[in-house]
Amino acid sequence: MIQNIVLSKLSKWCLCNVKCVLFISIITSNVLMSCSGGGNGNGGGISTIKTPSNLVVSAVVVGVNTQNPNGDGSGRVNFSISATNATSYKILLGNGETKDLTDGNLTYTYSTSGSNTYIIYVSAYNGTQFVSTSTTIVVYVAPVAIWSDEFNVNGAPDSTKWGYDIGAGGWGNNELEYYTNRTENIVVSGGTLKINTIKESYGGSNYTSARILSKNKFSFKYGKVEFRAKFPTGAGTWPAVWMLGSNIDVVGWPACGEIDILEEVGNQLNVNHSSFHSPGRFGNTPDTATVMVANGNTDFHIYSMDWRADFIKFYVDNVLYYTFVNSSSLPFNQNFFLIINSAIGGNFGGNIDPNFTTSTFEVDYIRVYN
């Protein structure tokens, strides 16, 4: 039928021109071949590609139970995809990654720590025909420690992880202690780091204490810092766990940025401070928050900071108390190193109890997670 129509039209166009004969012969041959090739079972007609249908997506987070509603922390998810007439699948995993599948089965491991929500987009294909759908999952990934000190080996702090700041001079805050590396002032024993602040005459100062730092040994950009600690007792004491930008020797302070994960002063018992110092917002910085922690000088508590490009959050015993909005215009998007110290007196420590003799800042462990 088709070839008759084509020949009829060509005949009228060519009339009796002999030069058209060869052209007509070629067209006739091609038409005949196209009509007789690879049918779809309907008597040799033109084949059609069926659009996939009945698309079903199953996403099972590994380890989900009553105690772990978002999984066991491994980040693994088992995907199963099926559709009628589908020959292949594409899955967008919600984190920027895409996978092409032929059998519809995939086990994927998410790596971003914490509980995160992902919108999953799935398409089923049959040639150029396709059908799509989406689903949402929440996956918990347990953080992985990239650095830690458990303070389990008696003696001096691990020299592969810590160095010392030594001396007096106020340290920019009019502090009254002389920092030493003596075992009288700093020692690991009984499973904790102990920094002892002592009232004594030493190096021209009336008090001694210690300050260790991971500068030139360990630094990091973004992650979670967690430590378990018990604070010293006594008016004037000023323990802290904090961080400075690793470029401090190049740009100075406060251009390098300072993150005070936690400070506590004995003149404000059980009041903990978390603060940021940056150009134009340092000293008595407005970027600060406080939280009440009962018995912080007699009981151990867990303190943590979740540091990311868009926010920095602070927790005590896993309870959030401060969220700071981070941005690319701030210095808190580069490598920082850790500092642990216990000062006395000074601008923030305040007046010292005249009856003060000694007190101890104890740290059970400190860990940095990805």
Please provide a brief summary of the model.
By secondary structure, this protein is mainly β. Helices cover 10% and strands 45% of the residues.
Describe the model:
The structure is a single chain. The chain has 370 residues and is mainly β. Helix content is 10%, strand content 45%. It has helices at 2-14, 20-36, 248-251, 346-349; strands at 53-61, 76-84, 88-92, 98-101, 105-109, 114-126, 129-141, 145-149, 163-164, 177-179, 186-189, 192-202, 205-209, 211-213, 223-230, 237-245, 258-264, 271-277, 288-292, 301-307, 311-316, 319-325, 336-344, 358-369. Strands 8, 10, 11, 12, 13, 15, 20, 21, 22 and 24 form a 10-stranded mixed β-sheet that branches. A hairpin with a 2-residue loop joins strand 12 and strand 13. The chain is elongated, with a radius of gyration of 35 Å.
Q: What Rg is obtained from the alpha carbons, in whole angstroms?
A: 35 Å
Query: Number of DSSP strands?
Result: 24
Number of distinct helices: 4
> Quick one: overall form?
elongated
Oligomer: single chain
Strand content of the residues, in percent?
over 45%
- How much is the average pLDDT? 90
* Distance separating the two termini: 71 Å
Question: Roughly how much helix do the residues carry, as a percent range?
Answer: 10-25%
Largest β-sheet summary:
10 strands, mixed
Give the H and E element order: HHEEEEEEEEEEEEEEEEHEEEEEEEHE
- Poorly predicted parts: 1-44
Structural class: mainly beta
